[in-house]
UniProtKB/TrEMBL annotation:
Protein name: Heat shock protein HspQ
GO molecular function: DNA binding
Organism of derivation: Allosphingosinicella flava
InterPro entries xrefs: Clp_protease_adapter_ClpF, Hemimethylated_DNA-bd_dom, Hemimethylated_DNA-bd_sf
Record keyword Protein transport present: no
Keywords, sorted A to Z: Stress response
Gene name of the record: hspQ
Domain Hemimethylated DNA-binding: from-to ranges: 8-107
Keyword Protein biosynthesis recorded: no
């Protein structure tokens, strides 16, 4: 049986994105080509909101105005953030250097 096609990642590491439904913003620090979190995490999403697993999922350093956290979000729920405002998250300086044109540059020691 052939595996379903996998969508190509629309966003790159360092891109600033916004969640379509919940409005929080974040900077991408890792990309999974398909869902790679726990089944328990996946099942905790209400069924009517649960995204398909065969799409890229992004690890974000996120901020919602009330606090900073790490988020795991499907590609279908993200849009490019066009505010040109940096994201406030305490882990950003250790992982990225410089912010320009709506993107962060990954520090050389984190590239692979």
């Amino acid at each position: 049986m052939k595996a379903p096609p996998v969508a190509h990642a629309r966003f790159a590491i360092g891109a600033v994105v916004q969640h379509k439904r919940f409005g929080f913003r974040g900077v991408i620090f890792d990309v999974d080509p398909v869902f790679a979190n726990s089944e328990e995490w996946y099942q905790a999403i209400p069924e009517e909101l649960r995204p398909p697993k065969n799409q890229p999922f992004y690890h974000l350093l996120a901020d919602n105005g009330d606090g900073s956290y790490v988020a795991y979000v499907s590609q279908q729920n993200l849009v490019e953030d066009d505010s040109d405002e940096p994201v406030e998250h305490p882990a950003i300086p250790g992982m990225f250097e410089g912010y320009e044109g709506g993107r962060y540059r990954l520090r050389p020691e984190h590239r692979h």
